[in-house]
Amino acid sequence: MAPAAIVSPSLLASDFARMADEAKKVIDGGADWLHLDIMDGHFVPNLTFGAPVVKCLAKHTDAFLDCHLMVTNPGDYVEPLKDAGAHMFTFHIEVDEDAAVLCDRARAAGMKAGVALKPGTPAEAVHAICDAGKVDMVLVMTVEPGFGGQKFQPEMMPKVKALRERYPQIDIQVDGGLGPATIEAAATAGANVIVAGSSVFGSDDVPKAIAVLKDAVTAAAK
Ligand SMILES: O=C(CO)[C@H](O)[C@H](O)COP(=O)(O)O
């Protein structure tokens, strides 16, 4: 059976000063997860928030907290994020840390382990840890990480397709520029976890914006 369709709105596009309300709005609108972009101003040229903010948000929601770490030193975040209430720990394969150890540590802490690829990184970079059964989710970035509101890169779809064919049971997440105009390409390629910031938080009809994404993934899986 194909992995379930999941929509994970990116709070990067929300009003950070009202994060709990923004989270409630998308969960009430049908979102499955909340995507939290942790940026350190070093791995990417932007700075957002870390475990203390995740911990504050966790007090206001029971939703699955899908943390995407755009940081140089993800190993330093395992315990703080676990303590904060995070559920998914996704780090970048490009960092200079042992990916297998990070996955094991995330899982031992009770979180799921995800591994992310920048647009310039080939799918083969995650084969070894996926083949070893250490990964719950692969995140294929469809923009350069760091900022919301960028243009979707359709040239990432062969990477998504190759990963889906090789790993039918693993969640495959796409992130960057997803919305009504791009979801079909991603869903057809085999992505089942859809991160969307601008297209959800910028919509006048949040439930509809989420449903469009989810329905496309469900339809593609049939
Ligand atoms: O990881 C990210 C940027 O690094 C964001 O999650 C992503 O860009 C989503 O924003 P949008 O849907 O507006 O493109």
UniProtKB/TrEMBL annotation:
Keyword tags: Carbohydrate metabolism, Cobalt, Isomerase, Manganese, Metal-binding, Zinc
Any GO BP: pentose-phosphate shunt
Xref: PANTHER family: RIBULOSE-5-PHOSPHATE-3-EPIMERASE
Residue sites binding substrate per the record: S10, H68, G146, F147, G148, G149, G177, G197, S198
GO molecular function list: D-ribulose-phosphate 3-epimerase activity; metal ion binding
Cofactor(s) for this UniProt protein: Mn(2+); a divalent metal cation; Fe(2+); Co(2+)
HAMAP family, per database record: RPE
Protein name per the record: Ribulose-phosphate 3-epimerase
Entry keyword Nucleotide-binding: no
Similarity comment text for this entry: Belongs to the ribulose-phosphate 3-epimerase family.
Binding site for a divalent metal cation: H35, D37, H68, D175
Annotated PROSITE patterns: RIBUL_P_3_EPIMER_1 (PS01085), RIBUL_P_3_EPIMER_2 (PS01086)
Catalytic reactions of this protein: D-ribulose 5-phosphate = D-xylulose 5-phosphate
E.C. no: 5.1.3.1
Active site residues according to the UniProt entry: D37, D175
Gene3D superfamilies: Aldolase class I (3.20.20.70)
CC cofactor note: Binds 1 divalent metal cation per subunit.
Record organism: Micromonas commoda (strain RCC299 / NOUM17 / CCMP2709)
